[in-house]
Design a protein that fits this description.
The chain has about 300 residues and is of the alpha/beta class. It has 2 domains: about 130 residues, Rossmann fold, CATH 3.40.50.10170; about 130 residues, Hypothetical Protein Tm841, Chain: A,domain 3. Helix content is about 35%, strand content about 25%. The chain is built from 10 helices and 13 strands. A 6-stranded mixed β-sheet has the order 10-9-8-13-11-12, with helices on both faces. Strands 2-1-6-7 form a 4-stranded parallel β-sheet, sandwiched between helices. Strands 4-3-5 form a 3-stranded antiparallel β-sheet, covered by helices on one side. The longest helix has 18 residues.
Length: about 300
């Protein structure tokens, strides 16, 4: 039996292989189109693929526009039961409390049903691959036999240095999800302009804009090279929805410049990201320093 098991969100972009390698348990999220609900267990397992999601977007109406749902108490209970079969101690790394009720929901389940168990709930203050980066770091430490106290201290230390930056062409999706807020500042009527967003202190904040697709590739590629210099863990996440050409170019830069021992986790993002970003997105996540002029 492992010493500690990590539980995290199904939207964390961890692949099935990583989940199995590091003995992680994921809590599925739902994406909802009208009366249809689809469970997303992880990046590679779900009732709706990203391509199917993009196809469904072509026929959505005001009443069937995609939305997401926080895992139910039953979903958390099932995940905790699975984790407690693997170990006596659990750390749950949740989606940011600044954008979701996931942290509160997980805590509520622990307080109600698992008070006698050793379960700690950690607020990532991030979303998608930002959550994944933190959960993977915790899972690697757990596999090495580190104590819960040591893992939680490490998570506290790297949380403010965890970066999640993504470029999305269509802000209508964020607006319909009620997440636009200050990002309205970088909205532009020009369809060529691509807004760039980051997660800061648990919420989405505007960062910059790209003038067009080529500008995205050029600036994100230069940024990727810088990431390889400053990254403080062994993992960098790159994902996309419907923008493989740009993501491939960025991936090549990451592979050409990464430090020895660094893994570039490159994948198509799960549909949950698409519900907020739309069908044309590129996302990067790492742990390390950041300066706005790098991008």
């Amino acid at each position: 039996m492992s010493k500690i098991t990590i539980v995290t969100a199904g939207l964390s972009e961890l692949t099935k292989d990583l989940i199995e390698q590091y003995n992680v348990v994921t809590v599925p999220y739902r994406i909802i189109f009208g009366d249809e609900a689809f469970y997303i267990k992880n990046n590679t397992e779900g009732e709706l693929t990203t391509q199917e999601f993009c196809e469904k977007l072509k026929t959505v109406t005001k009443d069937t526009f995609p939305r997401t749902s926080v895992p139910s108490p039953g979903d958390y209970s099932k995940a905790f039961d699975e984790a407690l079969k693997k170990s006596d101690s659990v750390i749950a790394v949740t989606l940011t409390s600044g954008m979701s009720g996931a942290f509160q929901a997980a805590n509520g389940v622990v307080e109600t049903l698992y008070k006698s168990k050793d379960i700690s709930v950690f607020d990532s203050l991030h979303t998608m691959t930002g959550v994944g980066n933190l959960a993977l770091e915790a899972a690697k430490m757990a596999q090495k036999g580190e104590s819960k106290e040591t893992i939680l201290k490490r998570l506290e230390a790297i949380r403010p240095k965890t970066r999640h930056i993504f470029a999305m062409r269509d802000l209508d999706f964020l607006e319909k999800q009620g997440r636009l807020g200050p990002i309205e500042q970088i909205r532009d009527k020009n369809p060529e302009v691509i807004p760039v967003i980051q997660t800061v202190d648990g919420i989405l904040q505007p960062l910059t804009i790209f003038n067009n697709e080529q500008n995205l590739v050029d600036r994100m590629s230069a940024f990727a090279k810088k990431i390889c210099e400053v990254n403080e863990t062994d993992d960098i996440f790159l994902s996309h929805i419907n923008n493989e050409k740009a993501a491939d170019a960025i991936y090549k830069v990451l592979m050409d410049n990464k430090k020895e021992g660094t893994t570039i986790h490159y994948s198509e993002a799960c549909p949950i990201l698409g519900a907020y970003s739309g069908p044309d997105t590129v996302s990067l996540s790492y742990v390390g320093d950041f300066e706005k002029d790098w991008l």
